[in-house]
Amino acid sequence: MLDQSTVAIVRESYALALSRRPCLMQDFYLFLLARHPDLEPLFPRSLARQADKFSGALQLLLSYANAPDDLSRALRRLGRDHQGYGARPEHYPAVIDALVETLAIQLGRDWTESYETAWRGLLGFVGAEMLAGAANAAA
Ligand code: HEM
């Protein structure tokens, strides 16, 4: 479950980072692929489009936070689709770390412990739901 304060902190920090760096999500993919070049073949489309989609999903999930059943269903479906994209359980920590670090680098001195905790809480929840969806699909 996502609590409202986690969602509020993520929203606030995401808005701040995006206002300073509109192409933040592209930075995230570049950072991810620089660190894990083995993941590059999984992403056939342009990184800009991929970044838009990821960003759209993040906004959507923040807006769904009051409807946990719908959110869980949507994330499980996304996780099932990700199996088809070649995403494996061990890739999730790599993606989560790359996103948290991109945000931390962007916000610099304004990055706080509470931002770190809220983002890791949110993305841990998202990853767990997506992996549960993928596991169900595989069963
Ligand atoms: C942390 C949670 C994640 C979220 C919220 C997320 C979000 C998304 C979204 C919204 C899309 C577009 C979906 C669509 O077009 O149907 C997508 C596509 C994709 N994601 Fe993720 N993703 C996550 C984790 C991962 C992981 C761990 C990998 C593995 C490296 C991954 C690899 C991909 C690939 C390969 C595509 C499809 C690219 C394409 O065919 O254009 N994602 N992701």
Automatic annotation (TrEMBL):
Domain Globin: 1-135
Residue runs in coiled coils: none
PROSITE patterns documented for this protein: GLOBIN
Signal peptide: none
InterPro entries, per the entry: Globin (IPR000971), Globin-like_sf (IPR009050), Globin/Proto (IPR012292)
Keywords: Heme, Iron, Metal-binding, Oxygen transport, Transport
Superkingdom in the source lineage: Bacteria
Keyword Transferase: no
UniProt similarity note: Belongs to the globin family.
Protein name: Globin domain-containing protein
